[in-house]
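Help! Submission page says 'invalid entity' but I think these are all valid:
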Amino acid sequence: MTPEQFDSVHAAFLTLRALPTTKAMQRLSETCGGDIVIEHAVRRMLEHDSPDDRAHDETLPPLVLGTNLSVQSFLSVAEPGQRIGPYRIIRLIGCGGQAEVYEPEQTGPSRRVAVKIIKLGMDSRDVIARFEGERQALAMMDHPNIAKVFDSGVTPQGRPFFVMEYVPGVAVTEHCDRHRLTVRQRLDLFSLLCNAVSHAHTKGVIHRDLKPSNILVTMRDTDEAVPVIIDFGVAKATQARLTEHTMFTEQGVMIGTPEYMSPEQADMTQNDIDTRSDVYSLGVVLYELLSGAVPFESKTLRERGLDEIRRIIREETPQRPSTKLTAAGKQSTAAAEARRTHPRELARQLSHELEWIPLKALRKNRDERYRSAQELGDDLRNYLEGRPLIAGPETAGYRARKFVRRNRIAILTSGTILAVVIAGTVSSYVFYKNAYTQHQRGLYVGAKTVSLLSEIALKMVASDDVKTKRMAADVYGGAYAFIKDVEDTNTPTMRSALHHQGIVLQMVNDHAAAAPVLEQVWKDYRQYDGEQNGHTRTALFQLCKSLYALERWEEADAKYTELIRLLRETPTEISVMKELWTNLAAIKRIRGDETTARMLEAEVSTLGSAK
Amino acid sequence: MTNHPPSGDEPRDLNELFPIVYGELRALAAAYMKSERANHTLQPTALANEVFLKISKSDRRIFEEKSQFMAAAAQAIRRILTDHARGKRASKRGGGATEECDVVRLGISDAGFDVIDFDDALSELSRLKPRLGTVVELRVFGGLTLEQVAENLSVATSTVSEDWATAKAWLKSRLE
């Protein structure tokens, strides 16, 4: 049921309950406006609207409500004054479903500590043993963005506890929204986290439970906001095997946080969790920092049963952040405001390459994710500095692979092109048979062919061998030619294929070949999508780069001037503007126009100070 | 959960107040355990009032108004009960002793609902209409009368009365 439907339920119920029962039932359907979902809910509610309660509603003493709360339920895991290991507890500073965090009397002047006590019934000896197993690795971690976990032990009540560095702060998502950090500021903050996680990984420590409540932002010395990851080592000790035991009780009640859990963690038969599981969780956090929503809504997850949650995490493709944002209505305005921008601008910024990054981190198959937190951080810097991304758009190739997987055809593990083609063709045929009209079939076969070609090209782009990579451009060119042949108009797929050809050529530094392709695709985008379209501007931006690299100054001058004109009309990242302005100034100077060069350089310095 | 103490003069929101109330409720229960009242059942109204008195004595500035406190208290009581019930379910696996379950009652005619089921249904209600969820939370876990709820939310008593009727019928139709 949607909130809108519920509003109708609320109104209809109140109207009908004022009537005598028979009359209410007669008017039920009419009052509910013919919506059977609403009607069903209201009927059930009327049946449960007991006359006893009606009489007592106004006068009912609140004591009757919520009765029989046993004292036991309210017992805390530790009390002020109590000793936990070498520490005397002062007060509770945080609480959650699985643990409570206490502030102890500090023993030394150097570092403040907090004591985290695990509430759930777990075998404390196991927890301690697992923690001991990782203690050496934990001790080797030394990073400003990682809170140290010093020790573990068992409370007098037999509950496991951890002693960790005390971090006064708020969850990273809350910090960013509270201070209305821009997308760029969020990315800067997030790349620090990638470095920290990467540091832990090089020491052999996997976090396993990265989520905003474990990533706190704290103020250090000079009023500088510093993100700090807490609980390294704790998750491994408390959920060595992520089984029903920790995630669900036997009735299937959820007690953990599935939103940030990687597919391989959700798959409880899977025991080998590696660093790429952390990459996934970082991807979820990044997705949330950018769009204001998690890929799979908490409510949706919690409403489903255990198997369904696992299925969603393992199989459902997350929506693109920009799509999610556009669909979020009012919330998207709030999300945009918290990022000091407008919903349309935010969606544009996301769909323009940025969202490829979280989506790559969120791939179901960990081989398709970033290989490390380091690589994820590198790609963010690529984005920030306007370089081509490691992540690609989630295009035909990826979907073709998904399609093949869904149809349970043998999957290419060897990565050979032949296997892709065979698997794809077989599954195409299955789909083909089910498509009913000739026209649909035609469209389908076309799209399929293109997606297979993209699939092949994507594999080749991923190759370390420059020659193979270069060939991917030819495959994209082939795809373009193929569609051009069957379509009588220029389609988005065609433009995409051509654009990819240009991008790949640029990637292998073949600017001479890239320039005409990029010029063509820029013109096509401009004609069909408008000059201010994100793709149009991207293509022009890339064309500028190639012309600059080729030292074709006259053309470069014209294209840079055009691009700068477009960017003046729309909010743009200052770093990108700086680069463009500086390059154009250099071009002007080379072409003997010293006056304009100086003017542009003066403008660059004001850009810097505006920041 | 944040590793965050309420301190200084920053504006306090519910998130920061919550650990204080939560901690006090638990400390109160520990005091009960030591006294002869150990086997008694607790009433949300009584609990909340006792904690409020204690906190307002120790630090007047903590809560600007009692209404803010009640919201935090109701939420804390709900959370404590639900966590406890979930913990109990989890430890049953290990063969722990079963104890009397906490139940939630919405009226004089119902026998009481399982705390966890109730919590899930209430979360769903809050998704559909947040105000109705708050009304139920304040009334059931905070022990407020309809008038007090109205005052707390700054809406008319008639509105709260209607909200409560809808919320109750909807919750019962889902839980029974």
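Support: the input was valid. A stray whitespace character was the problem, and the output above is from the cleaned input. The two ends of chain B are 32 Å apart (CA to CA).
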